[in-house]
Every structure is written in structure tokens, then in C-alpha cells.
Design a protein that fits this description.
mainly beta, four-stranded antiparallel beta sheet, two-stranded antiparallel ribbon
């Protein structure tokens, strides 16, 4: 696997992607509750050039983590997208906390 070389431009013709799906479980649940039941799901997606191994950055997405909308990692290379089963209610997963990172100019 090679690394990006700024002196030799790559055409970025071939890509790889990694998707990790996480089951989020509320650990604060009552002892009587089913602790294996997911309260939300999230997909984390990263893309990079197969030839030079340069990561790609997600454009126009704020940094942080939210149960309501996609956000990116601080370095913009991982998209964090909340997902839900098609059969679930539209508010599924909305009880989990999130955070946002803003640049102050």
C-alpha cells in the first residue's frame, strides 16, 4: 500500500470504502429492560484512493455526532450517518445525545 505523494499527482481512478454499522444501546436503561435492544444505529463511512491511499474528505457536513443528521469526524474523513430500520418510527434513535464542533473565526 502506497501513501499520497504531493509531488506526484494521482488521478484517483480506483477507490475503497469502509462502512461500519454500530448498534447503540442505552446503558442507563432499567434493570428490567432488555439491554440488548438497540436504541439507535449509526453508519460510519470512510473512502480513500486505492492507488495512493489518500483519504477523501466529506464536503459541506458539520463536524460532530447527531442522532438527527449526518455529521463528520473532526478531520472530515469519516461520515457519521444515523440510520434506522425501514419498519421503525421516524423518531427512532432520537433519544441519544450528540455533539457539534464549530470553528470560531
Amino acid at each position: 500500500m502506497t501513501t499520497a505523494d504531493p509531488d506526484r499527482a494521482c488521478l484517483h481512478l480506483d477507490f475503497e470504502a469502509f462502512v461500519e454499522v454500530a448498534r447503540l444501546i442505552d446503558e442507563r436503561a432499567d434493570d428490567d429492560a432488555d439491554t440488548t435492544q438497540a436504541t439507535a444505529y449509526s453508519a460510519e463511512i470512510s473512502v480513500w484512493c486505492r492507488a495512493c491511499n489518500e483519504p477523501f474528505r466529506w464536503i459541506g457536513v458539520p463536524a460532530g455526532l447527531s442522532p438527527a443528521r449526518p455529521m463528520v469526524s473532526v478531520d472530515e474523513t469519516t461520515l457519521r450517518a444515523p440510520i434506522r430500520p425501514a419498519s421503525s418510527d421516524p423518531d427512532f434513535g432520537m433519544g441519544i445525545p450528540g455533539f457539534a464542533i464549530q470553528q470560531v473565526v
